[in-house]
Amino acid sequence: MKNTTKQKLEEIKRNGYNLGIGDVLSDTLKNYQKTVWVNGAAFLLFAFVLVGITIGLSAIVFGADSFSSAFGDFQVANFSLVEIFFTLLIAVVLAAIICPFYAGLLKVSHNASTHKPYNFSTVFDYYKSDLLRQLVISGVLISSASSLVVTLIEFSGYIFLVKFITYFIQFLTVFTIPFIIFGKLKAIEAIEASILIVFKNFFTILLLMVVSIILTSLGLIALLIGIFFTLPIIFSMQYVIYKKAVGIYDEDSIDDIGISSELL
C-alpha cells in the first residue's frame, strides 16, 4: 500500500486535525497496560547502561576528580572551549544511542496496538534496522541544536531560561521518531513534520503530555524504581497521539492503516 503520510501532512497543513482528549487518554491507558512490563524492564536496563556510559565518557573527558566536583554545579559557562566541545560531543553520542531505543519503545506500542508479536528484544530492533541512520541523524540534529542554544543562553547569563528552552525544543520535536519509523520520512522532514503537528494542536498536545508526565511521576511513590514502569505511559501517549493525528500506513497489512480511530 502506498505510504500516504506526506499527503496526510499536506491535509493537516490546510485543515489542521482534531484530537479528543478523552479518547487519547483511554487508548493510552489500554496501550500502556499491554506494554508496561516489556517497556518498563527495558527502561530499567537501559537506564543503568546509559548512566554507566555517561559517567565513563565524562570521566575520560574531564577526569574523574574534575567530573565529580563539577557534577553538582554543571554549567557550560564554567567550562573551557575544549570542555564545551567535548560536552556537546557527549550529548550527541548519547542522542545517537538513545534514539533507536526510543523508536523500539514506540514499536512495542504499535505491535501491542495492532496485535503483532513483541517481546523484550523488540525494544532494540532499530539498532539493526535500515532506519538506524535516520534515527541517529535526527538525534544528532536535535541534540546539537538544543546544546548550541543552551550554551549561548548560559553565556548570555539568562540561566533561568535553560530548562525552559530545552523542554520546549523536546516538545516541538516529540513526534520526530514516529515520523521516521511509521511515516518513513527523512530526519529533517520528520523534524519539520513534528513541529507542524505540535503547532497545529499546541495546547491540546501540551495538556496531554503534561498529564502523561503527572501519571509517570506516580512511579516515584514506589521506592523510585517504579518510575521505570510508569515512564512507558509517555511513549504510549505519543504513539496514540501520532496514530490519531497522522495515521500509520503499513505496507504489510491493511489492518494497520491509521485512518480508523479504533486503536486497540
From TrEMBL:
Top-level division of the source organism's lineage: Bacteria
Keywords (A to Z) from UniProt: Membrane, Transmembrane, Transmembrane helix
Keyword Cytoplasm included in the entry's annotation: no
Residue stretches spanning the membrane: 36-64, 84-106, 135-158, 164-183, 195-215, 221-242
Protein name in UniProt: Beta-carotene 15,15'-monooxygenase
